[in-house]
From TrEMBL, chain A:
Component of the RNA polymerase III complex consisting of 17 subunits: a ten-subunit horseshoe-shaped catalytic core composed of POLR3A/RPC1, POLR3B/RPC2, POLR1C/RPAC1, POLR1D/RPAC2, POLR3K/RPC10, POLR2E/RPABC1, POLR2F/RPABC2, POLR2H/RPABC3, POLR2K/RPABC4 and POLR2L/RPABC5; a mobile stalk composed of two subunits POLR3H/RPC8 and CRCP/RPC9, protruding from the core and functioning primarily in transcription initiation; and additional subunits homologous to general transcription factors of the RNA polymerase II machinery, POLR3C/RPC3-POLR3F/RPC6-POLR3G/RPC7 heterotrimer required for transcription initiation and POLR3D/RPC4-POLR3E/RPC5 heterodimer involved in both transcription initiation and termination. Component of the RNA polymerase III (Pol III) complex consisting of 17 subunits. DNA-dependent RNA polymerase catalyzes the transcription of DNA into RNA using the four ribonucleoside triphosphates as substrates. Specific core component of RNA polymerase III which synthesizes small RNAs, such as 5S rRNA and tRNAs. One of its GO terms (cellular component) is RNA polymerase III complex. Signal peptide: none annotated. Its main location: nucleus. This is DNA-directed RNA polymerase III subunit RPC3. Residues 154-269 form the RNA polymerase III Rpc82 C -terminal domain. It is found in: Nucleus. GO terms for biological process: defense response to virus; DNA-templated transcription. Belongs to the eukaryotic RPC3/POLR3C RNA polymerase subunit family. Coiled coil: none annotated. Residues 15-73 form the RNA polymerase III subunit RPC82-related helix-turn-helix domain. It holds the Pfam family HTH_9.
Length: 484, 205
């Protein structure tokens, strides 16, 4: 899980969480959520008091947050239930499009919609998911065709098998001889084995198309239309809820990144091999040896059993990727000379000012300037090594070094800040141009309705001209900026 | 630190060359104001990545932004407009949203309320439509009609879909409060925000 101390969230991250919550759930939920992120865990009454919101609203907000796995609760001390927000989980909302798109590439449209529904709704029963996805897919199919529940169920099972979706922890079943009163707040448990166990459902049916022409066009009261028969059926898997397993997606992304990095590397090696080789055992051996000897250390050789055991060094691989990202950022922001210095310090671990100038072959003044620029942005840090116990500056070594972990964290924090700034900017732009956007929408709607009733070309043109050319230009720019 | 402080101001305590400039060089001006809001950069930013994947994800993002606003989890702040002015937009631009109420299955009141509320809501909606139909017909365009009907069907479907889903998870949560709160909580979906402050006096800490 994502528990962390409240103090570790930076202002920029809190701001970003606030913007995300606001966009997804509205202002009330945002207020409660941000309050919890700032203050750590709190009981219900304190939340009500400190946010000056009504009890009902706080309850509803908490329900929404808990339902979406953004807030957890636990019994604290003896009779107080406290709620805690998971800030990093809130930030994962930024990745929703990526999760959905990844599922599309792996499990096609059916899988994509399953994950989308689960992400939008937090937790759902399998039958609910299957029904909803079947309906949605049916809408997009040709007239007369429908999506079978069985196909959706299969896709769901595949997702469960590969652990992309998992069961939510449950309220433990009370023992029959349990004399104690139920606890204030249940501790939800789930068995490792059960987490991916798909319930045996007999879901038969097809997706339903929601057609507005099916409704009574004469405007008769809807009470005459009979309710859909399956609304009254009991839900067979009531109580078994599913959620998206974000960690599994993260694993997948890691693997993807490593594979593509190695593929790039392989291309370089491949080009230096003679043409016309068939991949035989010897070539495979060669490749593996090359990879193992590669300075990136992605693959290591761990023993010779079976002709040589190779292992992927995940830790090193990810560290290399992080470093490569840092190098590229330096190059783009400060220039290639700076990048050269950075790579040098990285390689030699600790360097003195003079050594930097010598190794990089860059004049002293320039080198100093660049080092200080990088220092001021915290990509590089200074390590003091005193020669004498009194730490006198004239008798202390000052060494430049790169702390990859902290530099990477700083970069991440900067990214979050950028995202927050961009979202604010987009909201600002949208608000400023609200009038224009609404006008354009109305015009489009009028045009559409007139086309439907077969209006003349001339009338259409007249209406289009309601938006003047400069306004149109403004609209275009706005659309471009907002969409990105 | 007792050092060479008393002895003559000309000597610095550290090797000045190491810092970056030798004696006699012009020192940079003292900066008296905060750095500029948008400093000039020597290097332009790298363009955003575009490709089939990114375009798809961009479209998804926009779609999601719109979709979440219509979900029952999006809680609108109650508007405190003055009710004496009858507004045109209020009459014709109502968006029917599904009501998502986590139901406590143990409370009998809640069960009755839930069954009642699904019927009440659709009956309410029907009545409103009939009223509006009787009033002014000329101003309404076709799209408003379709909006209402589409929304209504969504409403009915949504009611049945989402109200069952949260029964088990929230029962303990509701139980931790005194029962008075629960009773007033589920009486009427429409008066959700209205009677929230009545019981606040009892909560003393």
């Amino acid at each position: 899980m994502y528990s962390e101390a409240p103090g570790t969230m930076t202002q920029a991250e809190i701001k970003l969480c606030s913007l995300l919550l606001q966009e997804h759930f509205g202002e009330i939920v945002e207020k409660i959520g941000v309050h919890l992120i700032r203050t750590g865990s709190q009981p219900l009454r304190i939340i009500v008091r400190d946010t000056k919101t009504s009890l009902d609203q706080v309850k509803k907000a908490l329900c929404v947050l808990i339902h979406h796995n953004l807030v957890i609760y636990r019994v604290h001390k003896r009779s107080v239930v406290e709620y805690e927000a998971q800030c990093s989980r809130v930030l994962r909302m930024l990745r929703y499009p990526r999760y959905i798109y990844t599922t599309k590439t792996l499990y096609s449209d059916t899988g994509e919609l399953i994950v989308e529904e689960l992400l939008l709704n937090g937790k759902m029963t399998m039958s609910a998911v299957v029904k909803k996805v079947a309906d949605r897919l049916t809408e997009t199919m040709e007239d007369g065709k429908t999506m079978d529940y069985a196909e959706v169920s299969n896709a769901f099972m595949r997702l469960a098998d590969t652990h992309f979706v998992q069961r939510c922890p449950l309220v433990p079943a009370p023992g029959s001889s349990d004399p104690e009163p139920p606890p204030l707040a249940p501790t939800l448990v789930i068995n490792e084995r059960d987490m991916y166990l798909v319930p045996k459902l007999n879901l038969i049916g097809k997706g339903k198309r929601r057609r507005s022409s099916d409704e009574d066009a004469a405007g008769e009261p809807k009470a005459k239309k009979p309710k859909c028969p399956d609304d009254k059926e009991p839900i067979p898997d009531d109580g078994i809820y599913w959620q998206v397993n974000l960690e599994r997606f993260h694993q997948h992304f890691c693997n993807q990144a490593i594979v593509s990095a190695v593929a790039n590397r392989m291309d370089q090696i491949f080009k230096s091999l003679p043409v016309g080789y068939n991949i035989s055992k010897q070539v495979l051996d060669q490749y593996l040896t090359l990879l193992a000897d590669d300075p990136l250390e992605f693959i290591g050789k761990s023993g010779d059993s079976g002709g040589g055991m190779y292992v992927i060094n995940l830790h090193k691989a990810l560290a290399s990727l992080a470093t490569a990202t840092l190098e590229s950022v330096i190059q783009e922001r400060f220039g290639s000379r700076c990048a050269r210095i950075f790579r040098l310090v990285l390689q030699k671990k600790y360097l003195e000012q003079k050594q930097v100038e010598d190794f990089a072959m860059i004049p002293a003044k320039e080198a100093k300037d660049m080092l200080y620029k990088m220092l001021s942005e915290n990509f590089i840090s200074l390590q003091e090594i005193p020669k004498t116990p009194d730490h006198a500056p004239s008798r202390t070594f000052y060494l430049y070094t790169v702390n990859v972990l902290s530099a990477a964290r700083m970069l991440l924090h900067r990214c979050y800040k950028s995202i927050a700034n961009l979202i604010e900017r987009r909201q600002f732009e949208t608000k400023e141009n609200k009038r224009l956007l609404e006008k354009s929408q109305r015009v489009e709607a009028i045009i559409a309705s007139m086309q439907a009733t077969g209006a003349e070309e001339v009338q259409l043109q007249e209406i289009e001209e309601m938006i003047t050319a400069p306004e149109r230009q403004q609209l275009e720019t706005l659309k471009r900026n907002v969409n990105k | 630190m007792a050092g060479n402080r008393g002895r003559g101001r000309a000597a610095f305590t550290f090797n000045i060359e190491a810092v970056g400039f030798s004696r006699g060089d012009k020192l940079p001006d003292v900066v008296l104001k905060p750095p500029p809001l948008f400093p000039d950069t020597d290097f332009k930013a790298v363009p955003l990545r575009t490709g089939e994947d990114e375009e798809y994800m961009l479209a998804l993002k926009q779609e999601l932004r719109e979709t979440v606003k219509r979900m029952p989890y999006f809680i609108e702040a109650p508007e405190e407009k003055q009710d004496n002015i009858e507004r045109y937009s209020k009459r014709y631009m109502k968006v029917y949203k599904e009501e998502w109420i986590p139901v406590d299955p143990k409370s009998k009141m809640a069960k009755d309320a839930y069954r009642g509320s699904s019927l009440i809501n659709s009956a309410d909606v029907l009545k409103k439509i009939e009223e509006l139909e009787k009033r002014g017909d000329g101003e309404r365009s076709d799209e408003e009609n379709e909006d209402k009907e589409g929304g209504k069907v969504k409403d009915e479907d949504g009611e049945d879909d989402s109200d069952n889903s949260e029964e088990e998870e929230y029962d303990e949560e509701e139980q931790e409060e005194e029962n008075d709160y629960i009773n007033s909580y589920f009486d009427n979906g429409d008066d959700f925000y209205a009677d929230s402050d009545d019981n606040m006096d009892e909560a003393t800490y």
